[in-house]
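Blinded run. Sample ID left blank on purpose so nobody reads anything into the name before looking at the predicted structure. Input follows.
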Amino acid sequence: MTRPDGRTDLSTPSSRTTLVVTLAVLLVVLVGIAAGVGGALLAAGATALVVGGSALLRGRADWLRLLSRRAGAAVAGAGLVVGGVGTAFGLTPTTPAATEGTALAGTPSSAAPSSTPPAPPRPALTITCPTGAGAAPVFGRDITATAPYRVTIDYGDGDRYTNDDQHLGAVFSHTYAARGSWTVTAQLTDATAQTTTATCTYAWPRR
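Blinded prediction complete.
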């Protein structure tokens, strides 16, 4: 009821109802802003449960126009339903999105292991032609390579041999059928298919 001076008389049931409803709506809006949809529904459900429960216990609540226990029970039941829905919203897990290669907060990050192993070192080979060794020289060699590897030698006189790292003596010795000067070429291929080449010149007889 409005007084002659323009103010609202809060002692009347309709004015109290308007005030309570306004405050309840304001509470729901504020909670919704602060806590989201779930919080707003939970606040609305709790408010309805308190109002309906009060009317149910007292038999009626004239100030809210709840004129029977049945009406109070209905409002309380609606409050339970709305509160349950709000609780369900609040229990929905929210997992922060993590982009690939970015660790979540509080989780130590570790560098992903490289899927490509480092390349082995390139093989090394030197070959030494002897001097004054006659028709059947034995060639010196210095090899650094990843085993198993193989060596192919072209002795320059038309003979060419290949063998593995377990039988190097068979390829680093040769017998020439005639005197002359030959360019000896050796090629090494390691276990990773890397190659290297070395040469020397053999003269028989020695010049």
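Unblinding after everyone has recorded impressions. The first helix runs from residue 13 to 58.
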